[in-house]
Amino acid sequence: MKKFVSLLIMALVLQAGVYLYLDRVVLVPQVSFTEKTVPGTAKADQLGSYSSDRAYYAQLSPTGLKIFSTSDNLLSQEITLQPNQTITYFSWLANHHLALAGISTDTDQGTSVALKPINLETGSKPVIPTITGLQRGARIADVALSQETNVVNILVRNNTTATVYRTDANNRLRRLNLKTSDIRRIATLHNTVDLFYESPAGGVVYALDSAGRTRRISPPGSKYSLIGVDGSDRVYIGQLNSSNKVSVLMVGDAGGHFRNFANLSQPYSPDAITIGNDGRPTFGST
Q1: 134, 104 contact by CB (below 8 A)
Q2: Exposed end of the chain (fewer CB within 10 Å): N or C?
Q3: DSSP-derived secondary structure letter, 37
Q4: 205: which residues sit within 8 A by CB, 6+ positions away?
């Protein structure tokens, strides 16, 4: 597991080290962006997605995954699934030609899930974290990497509940004790093991610290959804309207200090909003 994480994030650590600490919440600049629908966000239920520099395009299908180079449209890598396998999660790491695919394998005894790294920069094949003995139909729904601590958090969902598993640099896998089993999205900072997660039913965003303590970080009085974290460790949440869609984006920190970032001209589903490494949001279908 240590080799797996190191190969994924070696280059990112150097980049993260040059960020200014003041460039967080107090001095965060007003990011200008055009609020429009952008196809190709990294979700496994879509037909495909581009790497952040659009050098590669991933095409998902029921039979597997193909990654093409956009410069010549040639096939770069391919994953062929067995009949009892499904890709339930896919994402690109920002600013790198590295991707993660969550694969579920169903058997008569239950389901196992594996997080497969795809390294287009080196073609290496690191160890694949696998979780076995799960209820049939379990799937990887989200992944959060803490880049400087070599920690990977994996959100596994079945039809009724969700569980977060954590692997560290010593290849130890454990199940986290969280405040709720109703979890839709997770995120983490680059230089700490703090985990952010949301309870969709309650509209509350929580943080789990390194000591295992859970605290609420979303403001009181409204319902919120966790949106994501940018490359400078700013945390983004969405204030939900009566239809449970995001009408206001807010930016803050792990301490729960949030302010308005953008009032959206139309509400979006939380799953339709993605925060880029530079803090710019992109929007899928409403």
Answers
A1: no
A2: C
A3: B
A4: 196, 197, 198, 216, 217, 218, 224, 225, 226, 237
Residue 170: half-sphere exposure toward Cβ, Cα within 13 Å:
2
Per-residue pLDDT reduced to its tens digit, 186-245: 999 988 889 999 988 889 999 998 888 999 999 999 999 999 999 899 999 999 999 999
Total length of the chain: 286
> Measured in Å, how far apart are the chain's first and last C-alpha atoms?
38
- What are the tens digits of pLDDT across the range 51-78? 888 999 999 999 999 999 999 999 999 9
Give CA–CA dist 92/160, Å, rounded. 28
CA-based diameter of the chain, in Å?
55
pTM attached to this predicted model: 0.79
pLDDT at residue 251 in the model: 97
Local structure of residue 272 (DSSP, 8 states):
G
Contact 129, 1 (CB under 8 A): yes
Q: Which helix (H) or strand (E) holds 49?
A: strand 48-50
Q: Alpha-carbon distance 89 to 158, whole Å?
A: 14
Residue 15 three-state SS: helix
Residue written as tokens 């792990």? 254
